[in-house]
Amino acid sequence: MKKFNILIVGGGSTWTPGLLKSLCVRKDSFPIGKLTMVDVNEERQAVIGEFAKILFREEYSELEFEYTTDKQAAYAQKLDFVFVQMRTGGYGMREQDEKIPLQHGVIGQETCGPGGFAYGLRSIKDMAQLVTDVREHNPKAWILNYTNPAAIVADALQQLFPEDKRILNICDQPENLLRSYGRLLERDPRSFDPVYFGLNHFGWFTHLYDESGNDLLPQLRDMILDGGFRPVDYEQRDQSWLDTYAMVEQTVRDFPDYLPNTYLQYYLYPDKVLKKLDPSHTRANEVMEGREKRVFEACHEVVDKGTTVGASVVHNDAHGEFILIVAESIAYNKGDNFIVIIKNEGIISNLPDDAMVEVAASLTANGPRPYAVGEIPVFYKGLIEGQYAYERLTVEAYIENSYQKALQALTLNRTVVSAQKAREVLDALIEANGDFWPELK
């Protein structure tokens, strides 16, 4: 069986230990010859890298592994897959993304609204450079991208690299939802055949078929309305995530046709969500004080003890496993079904063909083969078209260095609406982001 060469970009992420553990768990079904991790933050990279050495010594001794901060050397290797999970600006800029909008009375969130807009303008530059650098040495490597905000990044990469058919943008939130449905229904989530449509962080499940073709969605909807909804790994989640999942019950009660992506709370209930947010202590602070601290403390403990035995940081979570089973399906032409981000081209027949939609697709060695959705109802079409316009204008603002299009984008966003607030937030974000952003004129 062929062994694959993998590069993880953003190796210092708190999500990396789970991904590394997943590599060990799946080493028989997806064997790796060499794994390299690269990150521009040497300190974070070293902590995760030394942890990885111990993990692989115990569970994957045949694997060749290295970590580095030298991007060009990492990209110059012979690669089969590049897994990307960058965060341009780190948690410091994420904190600004969330707090600046809140100072102006609008939602501050990592990937939605002005926060997602700011993050998107930072991510595009680094992602475009990564694709250029990888392709110089590895024209056929698959680039599987987790980098957020995935909707904006996917649209930008499609416009900047329209002929590159080996870039696949994915998000683990639909996978998290499927696993949460599985726990609630006491079923294996990989047995589900989902029908899903929308944009990233802006979509709905319309059907959830079992192995016999029965639609489980009506049953699941009734269970959520009767007993609420929690993530599959709720015992490990911070309170803000529990609150986010809890909002699904309200959304289903108001719009019972389909089951929503959890991020829709920010767009459908912005006033309600805004009241819950603390401008002085946002989700970024919660992550830095919670998951960030726990993961790095646990990795340090592993390094100090020289073993992963008993380490809570090592677990096989959805984020880590999802990107691997996607890669497996491509590598072995398995044609397994996943929800991925892909150019519309008639999949949703009453949305623009050039929109980067999130739908179910069979993943083969030649890429995704999406399943047709057809026409969607007016309400959902209207919501998506507004979000699509916001995302497209954001990308055009980056490419054209256009202040006007940036202002139009934020004005269209359902978390902002007011043109006056859009301008106030935009000007504040320009000042905060400095050289991370293009110069908007």
Keywords:
6-phospho-alpha-glucosidase, 50% helix, 441 residues, glycosidase, Rossmann fold, 12 strands, six-stranded parallel β-sheet, alpha/beta, 17 helices, three-stranded antiparallel β-sheet
Distance between the termini: 54 Å
The fraction of residues assigned to DSSP E strands is 15-25%
Strand order within the widest beta sheet = 3-2-1-4-5-6
Total strands: the figure is 12
Residues in helix, %: 40-55%
* Gyration radius, rounded: 21 Å
The CATH class name of one domain reads: Alpha Beta
- Specify the overall morphology: globular
Structural class: alpha/beta
pLDDT < 50 runs, ≥5 residues = none
Please summarize the sheet with the most strands: 6 strands, parallel
CATH architecture of one domain: 3-Layer(aba) Sandwich
Layout of secondary structure:
Layout: E1 4-9, H1 16-25, E2 32-38, H2 42-59, E3 64-68, H3 71-76, E4 81-84, H4 90-103, H5 113-137, E5 142-145, H6 150-160, E6 167-169, H7 173-185, E7 193-199, E8 202-209, H8 217-227, H9 239-254, E9 259-260, H10 265-268, H11 270-276, H12 283-289, H13 291-305, H14 318-331, E10 336-343, E11 356-364, E12 367-370, H15 378-400, H16 403-412, H17 419-433
Parallel strand pairs: 1-2, 1-4, 2-3, 4-5, 5-6
Antiparallel strand pairs: 7-8, 8-9, 10-11, 11-12
Helix pairs in contact: 1-2, 1-14, 2-13, 4-5, 4-12, 4-17, 5-6, 5-15, 6-15, 8-9, 12-13, 15-16, 16-17
